[in-house]
Amino acid sequence: MIIANWKCNGSKSMIDEWFESYKSTIKNNGVYAGILGIAPPAIFINEVYDQIKKNNLDIDTISQDIAGYTRKFTGAISAKMLHENCAYSFCIIGHSERRISYNEDNKIIKDKILECLSCDINPILCIGESNEENKLGKTKEILENQLMILKNMTTSDSLTIAYEPIWAIGTGKTPNPKDVNDIHKFIKDIVQSISGNSATPIVIYGGSVNEDNAQSFLKEKFVDGALIGGASLDGSKFANIVNTFNGINLK
Ligand code: PGA
Asked: What are phi and psi of 90, to 5 degrees?
């Protein structure tokens, strides 16, 4: 699974250019080894969806966030709305930027996950430790706490966890891919042991992934894909990461 997280970036002209450069770089006639998605700002969903259809690409459109059952406030979008707009199949939840800047805690994030599941939207739950927590050797403890919201929850087959160390997001710093692999195995084991339906999640890595380092992460056994911010804003760079993913996984 390779997901582009455009965050608060994009414009109509950027979207046109993005698809042009994506198409000229992607190999295998757009046959992918797994799910491929773009999470644009909600206001551009129609432009992105139209481009995908026009170019006959097998790409999902993904929501960057959702209101949550109890937080249907001004400016928010509900899972029901996502579900009604059949363009959406997945939703990013609990990105560290939202945890930190919008004070989203486990309670709020659980509320959002349950709302997604009630409308057949697959959550992509982001978890990750801060630099300080990492230095103190607390990474697994922090991740386990963030995963506890899934305890006894019956999740979807496509439940996805994005491991995104906060200190690696947008900084150009990355953890050792072998350590990421170990953490992904840990995440899969925890979720399987606590979820109501013993689900094994898809686990993807995010944090300064680019064309040059993608291979080092994606070749690891328990790294099922990547969530990409900065490098996903250029269609050609993103296509190169997808090509790397396909090169490893397409049989
Ligand atoms: P980055 O962002 O690839 O720019 O580090 C990743 C993310 O925030 O999901």
From this structure: -130, 160
Catalytic center residues: 95, 164
Burial (CB < 10 A; 0-12, 13-18, 19+), residue 138, is: middle
| pLDDT one digit per residue (tens) for the chain, 251 residues | 999 999 999 999 999 999 999 999 999 877 788 899 999 999 999 999 999 999 999 999 999 999 988 888 888 999 998 888 767 789 999 999 999 999 999 999 999 999 999 998 999 999 999 999 999 999 999 999 999 999 999 988 789 999 999 999 999 999 999 999 999 999 999 999 999 998 899 999 999 999 999 999 999 999 999 999 999 999 999 999 999 999 998 87
Number of compact structural domains in the chain: 1
Residue owning the nearest CA to atom 6 of ligand 1: 229
Q: Which atom of ligand 1 is nearest to the CA of 96?
A: 8
What's the pTM value of the predicted model, to 2 decimals?
0.95
User: In 6-87, which ranges are E strands?
Assistant: 36-39, 60-63
We report the CATH number of the domain holding residue 141 as: 3.20.20.70
Ligand 1 pocket residues where CB is under 6 Å? 5, 164, 169-170, 206-209, 227-231
Range of the domain at 77: 2-249
